[in-house]
Amino acid sequence: MFASSVPIKRGAQQQGSEPLSNSQLPDSANYEAMTVQTLAGRLGSVAAVIERVGTEASDWSVREVGDGNLNLVFIVEGPVGAVVVKQALPYVRLVGESWPLPLTRAFFEYHALTRQAAHDPGRVPEIFHYDAEQALIVMEFLTPHVILRGKLIAGEKVKDLGRVLGEFCARTAFRSSDLCLPTAARKADAALFLANVELCAITEDLVFTDPYFDAELNHHTVGLDPVVATLRGDVAMKAEAQHMLAKFASNGETLAHGDLHTGSVMCTATDTRVIDPEFALYGPMGFDIGMLIANFLMAYFSQPAHRSDAELGGYQDWIMDVTAEVWSSFVMEFRHLWATERTGILYPKSMFEDQGHSSEDALNAKLAMVFEDAIGVCGIEMHRRILSLAHNADFESIEDTSVRAPLEARCLMMGRALILDRAKITSLDTVLAMARTMNQEQVL
Amino acid sequence: MFASSVPIKRGAQQQGSEPLSNSQLPDSANYEAMTVQTLAGRLGSVAAVIERVGTEASDWSVREVGDGNLNLVFIVEGPVGAVVVKQALPYVRLVGESWPLPLTRAFFEYHALTRQAAHDPGRVPEIFHYDAEQALIVMEFLTPHVILRGKLIAGEKVKDLGRVLGEFCARTAFRSSDLCLPTAARKADAALFLANVELCAITEDLVFTDPYFDAELNHHTVGLDPVVATLRGDVAMKAEAQHMLAKFASNGETLAHGDLHTGSVMCTATDTRVIDPEFALYGPMGFDIGMLIANFLMAYFSQPAHRSDAELGGYQDWIMDVTAEVWSSFVMEFRHLWATERTGILYPKSMFEDQGHSSEDALNAKLAMVFEDAIGVCGIEMHRRILSLAHNADFESIEDTSVRAPLEARCLMMGRALILDRAKITSLDTVLAMARTMNQEQVL
Question: CA-CA distances (angstroms) from residue A270 to A113, A145, A156, B198?
């Protein structure tokens, strides 16, 4: 949710929060933040950790590598191998105790990871140990993986990237929904994740609302003021953004990752993994894939600042191809699951196939609704990453603001078009054509 | 949910149910079904009951007046006054233990009643005592109120009926939503009501699904087969019904009554009260008012069998006027609350009024979405009351099936038009005009 280069200010995100009453949430009365000195003591007797690192904790080397925003992240290495240890802090790390953030986010991350692992095996880090009281997860050390966003800035390609991410979105969306799960199980799980209030409030504020007025935590690049004024003066677009927020906040169709941008994806040249679902919630089916597409489009629009003229066109084409494949793979996998795993209460075969009726039109209508939601979220994500608190490195790493601002302006205007026209846009090809056109426009 | 004249068969509604893990639900290990002999012993020392009935329980007279479907309902009278005692049974009363139904429905009814009382004071029965373990609620004895459906069959009028019901729907919908409540409070409450799985499953099956195939519990009037075949062969309409089910099951916008038909309303000539919210859920804002409008339309279509020619036109006009007022009052009250109580995360004033921008278009768009949902639910309710398990007395009390079937057929065809065209219908006047036209049609 937070990019590494962002100056986080003290927040006011806790409006409306009340003490959680859900007794399933862990008690962290004896919580203790770990250090490179204390971590081996905590984990040295945990069989699942010893097995992967080595029996003698005194032989372990521990590094803290957290990017400094929310959590502690340790790499623990020993004679046998290495693991990653992620521990939540009771506040936003970069800000300090003045911005509290509940430890329960580790609980939701753990439960999201286990569900994602079940729904798309191998795509998220394997979990070796979870300590609920310590808000601490020991998981697979992904190596030599690096954050996808960095690879896109560096101009590197990843094999099968679009297919893998599209399938991940389809499998997690379908298999946690009433299309597939027994509805009692979906409801129990949705009730559990409704307690992830504080992290959802960050999304509700920073993503859907703050970009559209002069919120305290906002900041944007010098030179963007005219475009920002256009957006904040567009009452119709602001209403659309809030219609999307209403769906995000209440339409618990499926377990969404909740923060699926290119900073939550780690890759080698051939392998792609999804990390960090602490913002997980039951929300609209189109949320994750919409946010993901937005981040590819932002990578696309930022490329002129990162590539030589000789490389630019080819690499932008590759990003467009990946983006197209994210959606086409989503659709293909969703269709496959509709045909093979539609065991929930929705669109039952008793009403369609068992009467000799095709459910193909119902499926197409459902996909169209998911697409419309996704494109709306996509447009909003393209705004909040440039106007709200948490920017992304695709643009932030462009030091010359006279280069950065015009590229961001294209993003903002494209986002506006997506939000306003999402009901009329019927294919991702149209979205990509809009991006190619906008990529040539002089908005500022 | 169940009409009194319905032959309930053994059900299969428990698909997907799992043991509830929500520790907030009451434990009923020492539950005991009350009888007219035992009830005074149970309540004779409860101060809130004594105060309203009389200090000596031996002076009380206890009658059991439950209509025989789900629950025990007692009237307890004494020298001071009378109260109603409603106690859940662990099964569907009319069927017996072969169709279990959880006692927790009393818990959800109690919590729905307290919230409705807070949001629209005086509109639901006052609660004097709640015994969670015994699944028992002691409440105000409404007298001389009778069930509204009976009054509509008898041709009786109720003053202010449409206004009161429209306001009730608007106040409960608005004040339990993210338009008004702190979102953390709405989410905690939504999580609580997500445990009302079994009663929601009844709605999901009996209302949204069973009408559209030859489900085990279905029955319909002799002579309707051609119309039923048309509906069950209409693949596009069935898909729309399932799109509505998807919203019902997952879009927890607000606390809905969940079963707001004319059998859940009690009236005198001048007073209107709402009862029986045991099917309560966090669901779409348009659900309650859509179901309510459907039940007025069914009353309208059934009138030719209940009125003399001299009375028919006038009374049908009155029902149309009430139906119009249900919606117009809903809209007026919703607008009032939007202006005066919009304190939630949605459409915040910081994005609109505080910037000198009107939120009027956003409000109109929201109302249009609520209307579209309501009209869709309305059409589905008109189908399930004629095709699924639970019929209603408006039609069931018409003994001559050659009279009943053509009237029901009009209802079915009108419901189909509402489901298919709900996105194009923009006013309730259009709906009422459709009803007036259909009221003249010879469908069978």
Answer: 22, 10, 11, 47
Window A:188-217, CB contacts with B under 8 Å:
188, 190-192, 194-195, 197, 200-201, 204-205, 209, 212-213, 215
For A3, half-sphere exposure in the C-beta direction (CA atoms, 13 angstrom radius) is 23
Inter-chain touch A365–B243, beta carbons under 8 Å = yes
User: What is the value of ipTM here, to two decimals?
Assistant: 0.94
According to DSSP, the residues that pair with A62 across neighbouring strands are A76
For residues A258 and A285, give the distance between their C-alpha atoms in angstroms, rounded to a whole number.
Answer: 11
Residue A121: cis peptide before it, omega within 30 degrees of 0? no
Total beta-carbon pairs less than 8 A apart between chain A and chain B? 199
Asked if A350's CB is within 8 angstroms of B246's CB, the reply is no
Q: Is A421 exposed, middle or buried (0-12, 13-18, 19+ CB in 10 A)?
A: middle
pLDDT of residue A70: 85
Distance, in Å, from the CA atom of A120 to the CA atom of A137, rounded to the nearest integer, reads 20
Using DSSP, state whether B306 is helix, strand or coil: coil
Nearest to B261 by CA among B304, B285, B297, B312: B297
Paired tokens of B56: 């000596």
Nearest chain B residue to A15, by CA: B182
pLDDT band at A23 (very low <50, low <70, confident <90, very high): low
The domain covering A39-140 belongs, at the CATH homologous superfamily level, to Phosphorylase Kinase; domain 1 (3.30.200.20)
Closest CA to B359 of B377, B373, B340, B376: B340
Residues of chain B short of pLDDT 70, as ranges, are 1-23, 68
Spell out the domain ranges in chain A: 39-140, 146-438
Amino acid (one-letter) located at B384: R
Contact A282 B352 (CB under 8 A): no
Contact list, B111 vs chain A (CB under 8 Å): none
Pinpoint the alpha helices (H) of B97-160.
Answer: 104-119, 148-154
> Nearest 10 degrees: CA dihedral of B145, B149, B150, B153?
140
CATH topology agreement for domains A39-140 and A146-438 = no
- pLDDT tens for A211-231 read 999 999 999 999 999 999 999
Top residue of A194, A210, A212 to mutate, by most chain B CBs within 10 Å, is A194
Return the SS3 of B73.
strand
pLDDT above 50 (res A20): no
DSSP annotation of B211 reads G
Task: Read off the pLDDT of residues A43-86 as tens digits, 9 standing for 90 and up.
Answer: 999 999 999 999 999 999 999 998 767 899 999 999 999 999 99
**Residue pair B288/B260 in contact by the 8 Å Cβ criterion:** yes
Q: What CATH number should be reported for the domain whose range is A146-438?
A: 3.90.1200.10
Q: Which two three-digit tokens encode residue B176? A: 């339990």
Provide, as residue numbers in chain A, all residues whose Cβ is less than 8 Å from the Cβ of B250.
177-178, 186, 190, 251-253, 282
Q: Provide the H-helix boundaries in A73-209.
A: 104-119, 148-154, 161-175, 183-193, 197-202
Mean per-residue pLDDT over chain A, rounded: 94
- Tell me if chain B has a CB within 8 Å of the CB of A232: yes
Res. A4 pLDDT band, cuts 50 70 90: very low
Q: What is the pTM of this model?
A: 0.95
Does residue A348 belong to the interface with chain B, where contact is any CB pair within 8 Å? yes
**Residue-level pLDDT at A417:** 98
How far, in Å, CA of B218 to CA of B12, rounded? 12
Contact flag A182-B365 (C-beta cutoff 8 Å): no
List, for residues A422-438, the tens digit of each pLDDT value: 999 999 999 999 999 99
What is the number of residues in chain A?
A: 444
- CA A148 from centre of chain: 12
Are the Cβ atoms of A188 and B195 closer than 8 angstroms?
yes
Q: In whole angstroms, what is the distance from residue B84 CA to residue B103 CA?
A: 18
The alpha-carbon radius of gyration of chain B (Å, integer) is: 22
